[in-house]
Amino acid sequence: MRFLYTLVLWLLLPFVFVRLALRARKQPEYWHHLGERFGFYPVKDLKPVIWLHAVSVGETRATVSLVAKLRAAYPDHQILLTHTTPTGRATSEQLYGDGVMRVYLPYDYPFAVRKFMRHFKPRLGILMETEIWFNLIHEAHTAGVPMLLLNARLSEKSAKGYARVASLTRCALQQLDAIAAQTADDAVRLARLGAQRVSVMGNLKFDIAPPQALLAVGVSLRRQFGAPRKVFLAASTREGEEALLLDAWQARGSAEGALLVIVPRHPQRFAEIADMLGRRGLSYQRRSENRVVPADVQVVLGDSMGEMFAYYAASDLAFIGGSLLPFGGQNLIEACSVGTPVLIGPHTYNFADATRLAVEAGAAVQVSDAAELILVAQRLLNDSGALAGMRKQGVQFVAAHQGATDKAMNVIAKVLG
Fold it and tell me: I need a surface site. Which of 1, 209, 214, 260 has the fewest CB within 10 A?
């Protein structure tokens, strides 16, 4: 089965370059460091390497508490972070600077992942969340590199996909030295696919400490927005959601003078959203202008990277994007950690457990569509008591579910000692 899988990868190789070219039209960084995607690396460190793979922005942010504890526990090791997307790599640069090495993970061709293993010779490999690459895991196993799957999550939808290649999935999962899942449901789904040595660790994203520097930026942002004015944030919105949101926002006459702040998930869409706002006749200002927002401005376009904590801290209420349309939702824990009340749409399979717990705790409200989203937002923005209660519940909700990092370190210690 792995031979057939690899054969398909080779047949798809021309389309890999086409896909890179298409993505690079909007985000030129996709052409940068191209050799790394095939196992060619200019950087090397003489220290023994602990390697973590974090695909993009969310997974990279989730590594913060784990990287801090790894550096403290293993000071003679070099931390290597691998990524798949330019935004993930940029997030790593913002979080860690030169404190870690960072490269792209090679595509899952045997020659490329073999070169990766030979170049870095990691003492340990850690895959974050749902990264099951069949050749990567096989080559690590062959090279004697212990591999862990930490903070693992597997939705029903993803589990059905992996079940279609059951023997390939089972082999890869059984070559992992340990798996620590976010929830018991995730652990059960992984076990059904053949995983062994599965434990439950909770979610690393709860072990978050909002950066004080970004909270200070949030205070400054709030002054720019206008302290007395209510601020409704649409965070990490995905393609198609902004139009739905603005339709409902304009249909209800905005929210009695409230400022709408839209921060698209992907920076290559900033210009697209600016055009959308202009076509709709909405007065808007870009965050990058970095100036006071006049009272007649209806929308702020958050065209900056790495400031999500600041946006949350500057807002009265936040909608978490990726959930109005079936993208699976984004991380609501960051908003709750700074005490920002949360609204979230119906599509939350990427964060199903965290969403359920947040709603049960009173830190979030789940809505069915854009019309209900704006209706509930208007109601809450006019109810300071309700917002205060949700702020308190959000902070308590995050604190109550912390501890995943220590459990992850226990799993790692059994391998590294």
Answer: 209
